[in-house]
Amino acid sequence: MNLVEDELRRLLLLARAGDNKAYVGFLTRSSVALRAYFRRRLAAFPDDVEDLVQETLLALHNQRHTYRATDRLTPWLYAIARYKLVDSLRAHSPRRAVEVPIDDDEPDGGMLVDTDSGAAEARRDLLKLLSALPDRYRLPIALVKLEGLSVAEAAQKAGMSESAVKVGVHRGLKLLAAKVRESR
Amino acid sequence: MKTDALISMLASGPVAVDPRSASHRLMWAAAAGFGMALVAMLALLGPRPDIAAAVKLPMFWLKLAFPLALAVAACAAVSPMARPGGRAGAAWLAIGAMLGLVWLMSAVLLAAAPAGARAAMVEGGTARACLTSIAMLSLPGLAAMFIALRGLAPTRPVAAGIAAGAVAGSIAAAVYALHCTEMAIPFFAAWYVSGMALPALLGAVVGPRLLRWT
Q1: ipTM of the complex
Q2: Residue ending a domain, choose from A74, A103, A123
Q3: From the candidates A68, A123, A138, A174, which should be mutated to test the interface with B, based on the most B CB atoms within 10 A?
Q4: Which residues constitute the domain of residue B37?
Q5: What is the total count of domains within chain B?
Q6: Which of A63, A84, A102 is the mutation pick for testing B, counting most B CBs within 10 A?
Q7: Inter-chain CB proximity A71 and B86 less than 8 Å
Q8: A103 CB contacts (<8 Å, ≥6 apart)?
Q9: Which residues pair with A47 in a beta bridge?
Q10: Mean pLDDT of all residues belonging to chain B
Q11: Which domain holds residue A10?
Q12: Percent of residues, chain A, with pLDDT higher than 70
């Protein structure tokens, strides 16, 4: 499994240096690992799996600065997944949280047998939540992250400064994660 | 929204981050805590009047060096505790070893002293002031550490809160040592350590409430 560890780590380090293609690879491979992780732990609630995968991907993005390059990557990734899982189970029912094995750090084989793709639809629609954000967050995310404009182009189009666009994307995605948490 | 669409959304635009930003946040918070504690001590308490003579005494430096060493170990604990899945075994061990050492030294000194002198060695003359001053001086640093931690992602909020409180408390103790005229190790082992423990306890209590993230 060191192959997965090494590959994910390599991709995230490239992504943090600004490589968008490596970042797609990191998030895609992570989503496969996360889907297997949540599916195994939420056997009784299969409909929740894709919601949690998406919520965790958003958390990986918002917290990507907290990974320390000298640490192993998979414990970091699964710690975020476990945090999201426990949080979600608590929100649904306090009793269900007890059933989660808290200490299983398992960068395990699940990601190899998993064959499904990210074409899965979550029950919760992030776009709907996104469209409800205030303009100073929604516009920068829509222009930079969805339409693919550069920060300078987005700033011009939205009538905002470039730094306001950057801050808007950053804070907006954090706010989106908070809204996701409230919505369940 | 399909997961593939979310991934391409997250991965588009500028995605670079400074990998040192997390450590920098914590370092700035500790530095700010030190600065605020120092200003508060100078404004409200003042340095000990005999400081020019005191700097020639080893105990003056010991009282300064011990909390500073503890602050370094606590910083080494808070950095991993601020990150998902982080472990800080060696740093916690170092903190424990330092406390053990100071208590051992205190026990040896007390055992060697005449029975009638022991109570005075522990109580000194300023025990209550020491305890409350260190705890109060640690509060701005504790607030700064928590602000820094709220931009990070601790998965064990009690431990993260303890580590943050230990940083703030040990910094406050080092600053208070510039004011305090007590020179007995047993006093230090009892009251400085208790003063540092209070913010750590407070950190443990408020950690789970304040350190949620998404």
Answers
A1: 0.92
A2: A123
A3: A68
A4: 22-110+138-210
A5: 1
A6: A63
A7: yes
A8: none
A9: none
A10: 96
A11: 1-123
A12: 85
